[in-house]
Design a protein that fits this description.
The structure is a single chain. The chain has one domain: 2-Layer Sandwich (TATA-Binding Protein), CATH 3.30.310. About 25% of the residues lie in helices and about 40% in strands. The chain has 2 helices and 6 strands; from the N terminus they run αββαββββ. The longest helix is centred in the N-terminal third of the chain and has 18 residues. The chain starts with a helix and ends with a strand.
Length: about 130
């Protein structure tokens, strides 16, 4: 029963998102890494960074408001600009996951709707 309610709420929110007219997301002016995009208006709420260059390991957590479809389109476009190559894409009811590769580095972008907000987690590592 809870699962059905959760799925129903997520579906209703996605429908609201698809009818909301909005301006395309812009790249934030300040970035933690120049090749890892952040949408303007999303606040950095968590950060753990180690290493540098191609030996960097990071977890960046952002929160903001945007339709999941627009957020996904933003990351797909901006990651390509940073020379990241998309490897996998998963879509769930209230979550989108994109996986990228750039040389020895791997980046997973997870976007999850929670109420009227979206939480974005970027996990960067090399393995």
């Amino acid at each position: 029963m809870v699962c059905l309610l959760t799925a129903s709420c997520a579906l209703q929110q996605d429908r609201k998102d698809s009818h909301r007219s909005s301006v395309p997301l812009e790249l934030a002016r300040v970035l933690v890494f120049p090749d890892v995009p952040t949408p303007e208006g999303f606040a950095l709420v968590g950060k753990e960074v180690r290493g540098r260059g191609q030996n960097r390991v990071a977890l960046l957590i952002y929160e903001g408001g945007a339709p999941l479809a627009e957020l996904e389109a933003f990351f797909r476009q901006q990651m390509a600009v940073g020379d990241w190559h998309e490897k996998k894409r998963h879509e769930l009811l209230a979550e989108r996951i994109l996986s990228y590769r750039k040389g020895p580095e791997h980046c997973v972008v997870s976007m999850r709707r929670t109420g009227d907000r979206v939480r974005v987690e970027l996990r960067l590592n090399n393995y």
